[in-house]
Design a protein that fits this description.
The protein has helices spanning 2-34, 39-54, 58-79. It is mostly helical and 83 residues long. The longest helix has 33 residues, at 2-34. The N and C termini lie far apart (53 Å).
């Protein structure tokens, strides 16, 4: 019973981490199309990544956090006309 519950938590963590990675892509695309930083999608992606990491999906959760932080920096650079 415990193993099945553990797999369910890990699957939920993978879904949350995947959603965080999608939000990172949306934030980076918004930065290039609008030319500004999207704080809301970036911070929501980081939150989803942390939740996924805590639920047991170390890879997807960590990747979501890293990609969202990178998307925030890309948006900041785009808003300063560095690209």
């Amino acid at each position: 019973m415990r193993n099945k519950e553990s797999n369910g938590r890990r699957d939920a963590g993978r879904m949350l981490g995947g959603a965080g990675c999608v939000l990172a892509a949306v934030g980076a695309a918004t930065a290039f199309s609008v030319g500004g930083v999207s704080i809301a999608s970036g911070m929501l992606g980081v939150s989803l990544g942390v939740a996924g990491y805590l639920l047991g999906s170390r890879g997807w959760g960590g990747a979501a956090v890293v990609f969202c932080i990178a998307a925030l920096f890309v948006g900041l650079s785009a808003s300063q006309n560095l690209f």
